[in-house]
Amino acid sequence: MSALRRRHFITLLGSAAAAWPLAARAQQASKIPRIGMLSPGPYELAATLDAFQQAVRELGYTEGQNIAIERRYGDWKLDRLRSLAAELVASNVDLIVARSTTAARVAKEATDTIPIVAIAMADPIEDGLVASLARPGGNVTGTTFLGPELVAKRLQLLRDVIPGLSRVAALWHPRAYSERTMAGILKEVEAAAQTLGLQLHLVPAVAPTNSPAHFPR
Q: Residue 137 is inside which H or E element, if any?
């Protein structure tokens, strides 16, 4: 290689080396937050997504411009929901929004570092999602409706709305929450029905097809 060519090559190499940090900084600056949304079914995902998009718009974020949202729902199949949670974690999203305790539990199984915001948890303490309501700890936070404590009140409100009510059928999902939480909910609703003088018929609904194979133990 001639001296001229060597000088030319060294100049090009130096220019490229100087440009690499600039390119890396530009790529980092252009990176937008990526949020994964995980839901057992499409209806729950759609309902959550509408409210979520409105809220982030109020905070100055627009999907496709300065924020990206990855949507995943499991067709009410637990194995598929687990796979989708692992997929979101593998894609290195910045945050996971989990719709329901079921989605939050599989997301927590998949990662202990990515923040998880869970919506409409039943009892996050009994379900092992948080250490306490005051100090959740870990990587899970969110909202809860404290299922067991409110069951009796809902049954009372139903009887108030329908005077003369004597028989009630209730759909319930045997695998929606932990066994301990589900046992607490069933105990509360049965005790409330007895106190209110109502005949209660509990109907398990595991999936739209009511097939227990969708959510195995």
A: none
User: Is there a single domain that holds both residue 89 and residue 161?
Assistant: no
Please indicate, yes or no, whether residues 112 and 181 belong to a single structural domain of this protein.
no
Beta strands in 61-106 (DSSP E): 68-73, 95-99
CA-to-CA distance for 194 and 181, rounded, in angstroms? Answer: 20
Alpha-carbon distance of 181 to 50, in angstroms, equals: 29
Token pair, residue 173, equals 């999902």
pLDDT in tens, the chain (217 residues): 544 444 443 444 444 445 445 444 444 446 899 999 999 888 777 777 888 888 889 999 999 899 999 999 988 888 999 999 999 999 999 999 999 888 999 999 999 999 999 998 878 888 889 988 778 889 999 988 766 667 777 888 888 899 889 999 888 877 767 677 778 778 888 888 888 899 999 888 766 665 443 433 3
Same domain, 103 and 128: yes
Closest to 42 measured CA to CA, from 99, 102, 120, 127? 99
Instruction: Out of 119, 144, 169, pick the residue that ends a domain.
Output: 144
Helices 179-196 & 147-161 angle (0-180, nearest 10)? 30
SS3 of residue 77 by DSSP = coil
Identify the domain containing residue 185 by its residue range.
148-214
* 92 and 135 co-located in one domain: yes
pTM score above 0.70: no
